[in-house]
Automatic annotation (TrEMBL):
Protein name as it appears in the record: Sodium-dependent transporter
Protein species of origin: Agathobaculum hominis
NCBIfam families attached to this UniProt entry: Na_transp
Listed Pfam families: SNF
Membrane-spanning intervals of the chain: 12-29, 41-65, 86-109, 129-157, 169-187, 220-243, 264-284, 304-332, 353-375, 395-417, 438-456
Length: 464
């Protein structure tokens, strides 16, 4: 059995790897789309408050549990309370499910990067381009397998030589790219059909201004729930990933600072992503296309890039390369978490474990990809939307399991273990855990109630 000589080299390596997990399609696509849909600045304010309270609580808990137990989800829960091992297994199952489709999305993004690099920006903007790509039986499978293969290769190389090494350059480059595109977005201007000049700056103000029009209590609650589910998806919490990464942090690292830095990185990139996408969409297609949901990234944006003329190809390349980095570093963390759990359970070596998992997930990725063609299904999900295989996996893992797990783990930490279990770890080297009081109240009272409501809402129980 491989001993726990697996560690990040230090604080920076850990923060960049954890930020790599956190920053993903959630930041680049989901956050801007929710902000546009949920009242701009209103959503931003709610989201920022939740990051500092709720997100902070869940992220702190996961990382502290990981470092304290030196184990991944299954082992960690078992070590805390043997009777709660079941919750560890449930937590482990979230990345197991996410892994079946994350490389598929990574494959789509890679395909678009290739399309822009080869100068076919206008083809990508055509009406049925995306649909005809994902429903074709070969090309999306090839890209998914490629993405899966690269992910496996990095995880195969281990914590420091694989994950940390890649995150150390990918995350800073990603940050620079997002800033560059966001600044470019602000300089855009375009004369619309009515002869008015619309500027990127106006789009930016549209993003920042709280839109209180038609705000009812019910709509406010909906926005709150959207922000909350976005938050824990975005921080990669309640799925064991941050427990695994936490278990690789050296004892002398100050977790307080690390948690703050991860939150700032993730939230900063989300905000900047809104700054790059919303003004650009605003300038070229107004506010209507904005709430477009899933199609924003693969349908609306290519149209926006096409409208930019020659610069569009360059911006398209930069955007999809950014998206590859974001998705790859997240995908790595998903596979790492599964790998780490398996190594602990089966006492196998990293290399052997990754090889076996690769075979399984290459097959799974192919099946999920073919869910749009050969294995096409249409299922009515309890939240009212219609989905294919990928959406089913996404729904079960993110909408059903994650809130449920978060609920149970706040009960475990808040009431069974008591908050001191986490607080002691945060103060291990004599640091002061500044938001201690907040943490206590959140983990015992606020978070469990909020998770319960979120669970009822996302499973559709609340609306029946
Ligand atoms: N945190 C990632 C994002 O914001 C999503 C993610 C979910 C990553 C699950 C890893 C695992 O996009
Ligand atoms: Na994120």
């Amino acid at each position: 059995m491989e001993k726990k000589q697996n560690h990040f080299s230090g604080q920076l390596g850990f923060v960049l790897a954890a930020a790599g997990s956190a920053v993903g399609v959630g930041n680049l696509w989901r956050f801007p789309y929710l902000a546009a849909k949920d009242g701009g600045g209103l959503f931003l304010i709610i989201y920022f408050i939740l990051v500092l309270t709720f997100g902070f609580t869940l992220l702190t808990s996961d990382i502290a549990i990981g470092r304290r137990t030196q184990k991944s989800a299954i082992g960690a829960y078992e070590q805390m309370r043997p009777k709660w091992k079941g919750l560890g297994i449930l937590t482990f199952l979230v990345p197991v499910l996410i892994m079946t489709y994350y490389a598929v999305i990574g494959g789509w993004i890679t395909k678009y990067a290739v399309v822009y690099v080869s100068g076919q920006a206008s083809a990508a903007a055509a009406d049925n381009y995306f649909t005809s790509f994902i429903t074709s039986p070969v090309s999306p499978v090839v890209f998914a397998l490629l993405f899966m293969g690269v992910t496996a290769l990095i995880v195969y190389n281990g914590v420091q030589n694989g994950i940390e090494k890649v995150s150390r350059w990918m995350m800073p480059v990603l940050l620079v790219l997002v800033v560059v595109i966001a600044c470019y977005s602000l300089t855009l201007s375009h004369t619309n059909a009515d002869g008015q000049v619309v500027t990127g700056w106006q789009g930016f103000l549209y993003y920042l201004t709280p839109n209180l029009e038609g705000l009812t209590v019910q709509r406010f609650l909906q926005i709150l729930l959207d922000a909350m589910s976005q938050l824990f998806f975005s921080l990669s919490v309640s799925m064991g990933i941050m427990i695994t990464y936490g278990s690789y942090v050296r004892p002398e690292v100050d977790l307080n600072r690390a948690v703050n830095q991860i939150e700032i990185f993730d939230t900063g990139v989300a905000f900047l992503a809104g700054m790059m996408i919303i003004p650009a969409v605003y300038v070229f297609s107004g506010t209507e296309g904005m709430g477009a949901g899933p199609s924003l990234m693969f349908v609306s944006l290519p149209k926006v890039f096409a409208a930019m003329g020659r610069a569009g190809t360059a911006v398209g390349i930069l955007f999809f390369v950014t998206a590859i980095f974001a998705t790859l570093s997240s995908c790595i963390s998903v596979l790492e978490s599964i790998t780490a759990n398996c190594m602990e359970i089966f006492h196998t070596s990293r290399k052997k474990t990754v090889l076996v998992l690769s075979v399984i997930y290459l097959a799974a990725s192919a099946v999920i990809t073919l869910g749009y063609s050969v294995f096409y299904v249409e299922v009515m999900l309890p939240n009212g939307s219609v989905g294919q295989l990928l959406d089913i996996m996404d729904y079960v893992s993110n909408s059903v399991m994650m809130p449920f797990i978060a609920l149970l783990s706040t009960v475990l930490i808040g009431w069974v273990m008591t908050p001191d279990y986490v607080i002691d770890e945060m103060e291990r080297n004599g640091e002061t855990f500044r938001r201690k009081k907040l943490y206590r109240v959140m983990i015992r009272y606020v978070a469990p109630v909020m998770m319960f409501v979120l669970f009822l809402q996302s499973t559709g129980i609340l609306s029946k």
